[in-house]
Amino acid sequence: xxxxxxxxxxxxxxxxxxxxxxxxxxxxxxxxxxxxxxxxxxxxxxxxxxxxxxxxxxxxxxxxxxxxxxxxxxxxxxxxxxxxxxxxxxxxxxxxxxxxxxxxxxxxxxxxxxxxxxxxxxxxxxxxxxxxxxxxxxxxxxxxxxxxxxxxxxxxxxxxxxxxxxxxxxxxxxxxxxxxxxxxxxxxxxxxxxxxxxxxxxxxxxxxxxxxxxxxxxxxxxxxxxxxxxxxxxxxxxxxxxxxxxxxxxxxxxxxxxxxxxxxxxxxxxxxxxxxxxxxxxxxxxxxxxxxxxxxxxxxxxxxxxxxxxxxxxxxxxxxxxxxxxxxxxxxxxxxxxxxxxx
Length: 343
What we know:
This protein has 343 residues and is an alpha/beta fold. It has two domains: 3-186 and 225-251 and 309-324, NAD(P)-binding Rossmann-like Domain (Rossmann fold, 3-Layer(aba) Sandwich), CATH 3.40.50; 194-219 and 255-304 and 334-340, UDP-galactose 4-epimerase, domain 1. It is built from eleven helices and 15 strands. It has helices at 12-23, 44-47, 67-77, 91-96, 98-118, 153-172, 194-206, 227-239, 256-266, 312-318, 327-340, and strands at residues 3-7, 27-32, 57-61, 81-84, 124-130, 176-181, 184-185, 213-215, 221-222, 225-226, 246-248, 254-255, 271-274, 281-284, 290-294. The strands form four sheets. A seven-stranded parallel β-sheet has the order 3-2-1-4-5-6-11, with helices on both faces. The protein starts with a strand and ends with a helix. The mean pLDDT is 95.
């Protein structure tokens, strides 16, 4: 039985990864923060299973900004594989708390790499990088060789961490890789992410909510995939013979406008857009009711207009490709929201 350690196990991707690895027969250890209130809803079904929790799934208290307990934990668990997913990951929020973001994303990754190279049994290490490292790229689609030009503190932190993974791989021979993942969503996404906000609002508006959905730049384009599919790529990267960084993407971009339109359609509403820029609105074709508005308050200080990755290297190297793409992701998320709301 292989042993894996997941930082960020209570997050969207961490919960899917825990399920995936348990299905592969792994013993899974997860790092959680000690807090006055638990935030473990995404893995509660695993914790509630007596055949899993305490037998093949274990949770440990630690903080990414405190290297000493991390070192003790890794020495005790002796994982075969580490999946480093944790850290402040909201782009907009990173402008408000840049120092915390740098410590959680950049410095914490360096700390874990330092610990790994000192362990008697060196684990294979996966780092969850991000397309935000490319910022405002000059080439489309982006590849592993695209220059890093991050536009926000989160992207800067991820760029540093991704570079350090490469340095430790080359300098110390660690099997350490970065999955440069483009946006991957699901019904487990946090409430402050635009895809979750759109899906939840579309479902609620279809069920009678009065307040319209308020968004920022509708022209921003992202490469949206489905989170549960991306965890397989993470695992495959650590099973490869040779460590290498890979872009994990669908290869297709989708605007916020198109994502919202697909989400409302999945909720049974045909949305028509009128106006433009900050005056643009989304109107219900049937009733004429305004269901979506644009507000400058939701524009980012520096907005990356378009990100789309090249999926071919990952397909060739590990045999992985995304299956749920763009507007289909929106539809899946809305169906899940409607089910949760009892529709």
